[in-house]
C-alpha cells in the first residue's frame, strides 16, 4: 500500500472514531516515512482520544508521546 493510501485510510478511520485502525495505519506510514508530520500529529491525536475513551492515566500518555517523537 502506498503512503498516500495509508494516510487517507488512517484519516477516514480517524473521522469514524476508529482510533485503533487509524493508529495502526499511521504507524505503518511512519515506519516508511518518519518525517511525515501530518501523520505524526494525527497519530498523537488518535492515541490521546483512545486513552481518553479508555480512561488511561496521564503517565501512559506521556510515555507514548515520548515514544512517538523522532530520535
SSE layout:
Blueprint lengths: L2 H13 L3 H14 L4 H18 L3 H11 L3
Helix pairs in contact: 1-2, 2-3, 3-4
Quick overview:
With 71 residues, the protein is mainly α. The chain contains four helices and no strands.
What does this structure look like?
This protein has helices spanning 3-15, 19-32, 37-54, 58-68. Helix 2 packs antiparallel against helix 3 and helix 3 (37-54) runs antiparallel to helix 4. The N and C termini lie far apart (25 Å). The protein has 4 helices and no strands. The chain has 71 residues and is mainly α.
Radius of gyration: 12 Å
Calculate the terminal CA-CA distance, rounded to whole Å.
25 Å
| Helical run tally | 4
Q: What's the β-strand tally?
A: 0
Which parts are unreliable, with pLDDT below 50 for 5 consecutive residues or more? none
Mean pLDDT: 86
Largest sheet: none
Strand content: under 5%
| Assembly state | single chain
Helical percentage = over 70%
What is the ordering of alpha helices and beta strands?
HHHH
Structural class: mainly alpha
Q: What's the overall geometry? A: flat
Amino acid at each position: 500500500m502506498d503512503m498516500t493510501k495509508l494516510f487517507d485510510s488512517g484519516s477516514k478511520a480517524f473521522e469514524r472514531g476508529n482510533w485503533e485502525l487509524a493508529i495502526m495505519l499511521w504507524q505503518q506510514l511512519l515506519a516508511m516515512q518518519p518525517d511525515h508530520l501530518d501523520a505524526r500529529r494525527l497519530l498523537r491525536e488518535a492515541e490521546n482520544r483512545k486513552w481518553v475513551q479508555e480512561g488511561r492515566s496521564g503517565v501512559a500518555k506521556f510515555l507514548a508521546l515520548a515514544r512517538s517523537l523522532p530520535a
